[in-house]
Amino acid sequence: MSYPRRGMHGEVVEDLGRRIVAGDPGASGQLDPAELGRRYQVSHTVVREALKTLAAKGLVDARPKRGTYVRPRGDWSLLDADVLRWRFTQRGDGDMLRDLAEVRAVVEPAGARLAAARRTDDDVAALEKAYEHMAATAADPVAHTEADVAFHRLLLAASHNELLECLEVVIAAALTARDRLVHSTGERPGFSATHRAVLDAVRAGEPEAAESAMRDLLAQAERDEENL
């Protein structure tokens, strides 16, 4: 569950959520809504709604007589878009990078294979547009990242498997965080070629070639991360 970060409610959710995920001692254990209101200079209503949003993400809970408290890490909704993003803001969260790289290695080759077998003309046109946008934004890390994420989302959509499509939130979070690190100084060598190979195989309707090309792309991504 993601939400627009507008207004005081969004600001409280964003800051408190980040602090909880980062393990900030000041945002752990029991939380005092009145103290949160004073800290953020917002009303009780804003605090209550912010805590409801964080509760929906598995980060906090409220119980009679016990009060509001931060839930154990194992209870968090780890596939929630915001929780993923907050974890990625911790540059040192190497375990998270590893876990998501492993998920991509399982999901994306299969997605590429299915996309090559099931893609429509509209799917191919959308992928080509995303690829062209990546090429046109190589000098702009933010726009380049958005285009890359769009390409991989469209690839999963082209699989026409609803369950695979649901995993796009994980892929998008992984790519966004990775690209911001890897492409901060410009596009890496081989980036365009590996994506082109996937696109060409999907367009040609060659499942095995598409899967192989995606594995090559992920291997290149791993090498790029190792060279950071």
Automatic annotation (TrEMBL):
The keyword Zinc does not apply. Residues 6-73 form the HTH gntR-type domain. SMART domains: FCD (SM00895), HTH_GNTR (SM00345). Pfam families: FCD (PF07729), GntR (PF00392). The keyword Transcription regulation applies. Keywords: DNA-binding, Transcription, Transcription regulation. CDD domains: WHTH_GntR (cd07377). This is FadR/GntR family transcriptional regulator. It comes from Nonomuraea spiralis.
